[in-house]
Amino acid sequence: MTDIMQVKGLTFKNEKKKHWFAQPEIFQLGPIELNVKRGETIAIIGENRSGKSLLAKLLVGAVEANSGEIVLNNNVYDARFNKKASRNSRTSDIRMIFQHSNESMNPALTVGRILDEPLRLNTGSDEATRKAIISDNLVKVGLLREHYYFYQHMLSDGQQQRVALARSIMLQPKVLVADEPFAALDPTIRSQTVNLILKLQQEMGLAFVFISHNLGIVRHIADKLIVMQDGNIVEAGKTETLFRWPQHEVTKKLILAYQSLVPQQTLR
């Protein structure tokens, strides 16, 4: 598999002053070096305030980096996006899946209008073409074409999550990034969503980068595991290798905590 995304020298520094006389609270991330292959699933884990969510936001351009570049589908983007166009030009190649699908949907808009927005803002397609694309993607995520006319209150939690997924693939991205995409779902819907993402990966060749505290899901779907601490990657490798032979103390702590919650016979 070839690299679909390369992250080079990505850094971020933030200083926060709580009040006038206090020392500033400084958090520094990176430099981060990261390669993602086409169709690969990468999980990012770590303790709280390790920089996982910040890294996800930097990748999709929701937060501006201090330095670094991101290569997406052989296109090089400055992660600082000093010019707005630098951020907007990569929106079709990398998209975000929101954790709380119900909070990311405008209840006053139909599903069709919600899904139309990324197409209307990022493509030159006419209304009929956009509607056909939306209908096809609704079917692709397991919904009906008729859901185009539904409002949020007419959808179950699982259906809302599928709408969020449909929105994330509307521009035919190469990489999906998600911060705790399964945390707000009940076990049944979570299992359905995981299987749907795996299906879409196979069909579309998507790479999936996700942050999760659920190491059971991580072990099940991730090809590669990245462990973060204090804004840095402290260990990375194949998922099963790190689960069986963790080297860094943080990795050992996280794996041990997971294993203590799993019946021992399932670990053999």
UniProtKB/TrEMBL annotation:
CDD domains: ABC_NikE_OppD_transporters. Residues 5-255 form the ABC transporter domain. Gene3D superfamilies: P-loop containing nucleotide triphosphate hydrolases. GO terms for molecular function: ATP binding; ATP hydrolysis activity. One of its GO terms (biological process) is transmembrane transport. InterPro entries: AAA+_ATPase, ABC_transp_ATP-bind, ABC_transporter-like_ATP-bd, P-loop_NTPase. Keywords: ATP-binding, Nucleotide-binding, Transport. Belongs to the ABC transporter superfamily. PANTHER family: D,D-DIPEPTIDE TRANSPORT ATP-BINDING PROTEIN DDPF-RELATED, TRANSPORT ATP-BINDING PROTEIN. This is ABC transporter ATP-binding protein. It comes from Alteromonas halophila.
